[in-house]
Amino acid sequence: MSSKLTVVMCFMCLLAFGKYAAAEQPISQKKENAATQQLIKQEASKPLSAVDWYNKGAALNNNSDQELSYYQKAVEADPTFAPAYYNMGIIYMKRDMNTDAVSSFNKFLMYSNDDAKKQQVRKELSELGASQGTSAGASNQTSSSDFKQRAVELYNRGSDLNDNSDNEMQYYLQALALDPSFAPAHMNLGLLYYHRKDYRSALSELTRYIEYTNDPPEKRKQVLNLIEWLKAAVKSQPQQKNQPAQPAAQPARNNPNTGTQQMQEVPLQ
Description:
Shape: elongated
Helix content: over 70%
Structural class: mainly alpha
Oligomer: single chain
């Protein structure tokens, strides 16, 4: 009797041991789970990219401080990330923070390759410049001539640089935000785009120069010749072939203060 009881107890012990033993994972599976957890930790510890921060803001899409902070973090991660500057400009504009909106839109223009959106932003900048003039005139008893004078000062700073830099571009864009009809700034900005081979933007700015300028016919003729070349270049640029030869005589940039310019000879390419 006792022997039978012993056998039964041993059998039950084996069953229990088998039950608990089955709960243990194979060694290889343990290592795989540990590796997965380690990978998750590593991914979580990685700094977010500009795209990550931008997507966080775009997902909110509520013009909140939180959304704005995500875009600010995006440009901290990548100061050339144009989409974040664009969305920041929109938020600032909706908050009537026009100075910040102009700054953000200018940086967007600096770094973006989206020609269609750049045209839209330039229009917004022109409207912001006009609205800044109106609101400031009402609150500070200033006149449009004050804004035109400020535009001249910004333009002169850019002309003094004359180095095709982002800073030079900023000055012209800020000048045009205050005075959208300031022809010399359109001229210099167009030539700056031209030297950067952004022919579509150059064509747009030089066309505006012709629209607003009172310069003599000879000076306008130089720009018109370059405009015709740019039109042909824009058509051929996507294929990068059959690009027309550049005009032998091209207009130089306007000089600060006087707004005068000298002809410069450029060899055919």
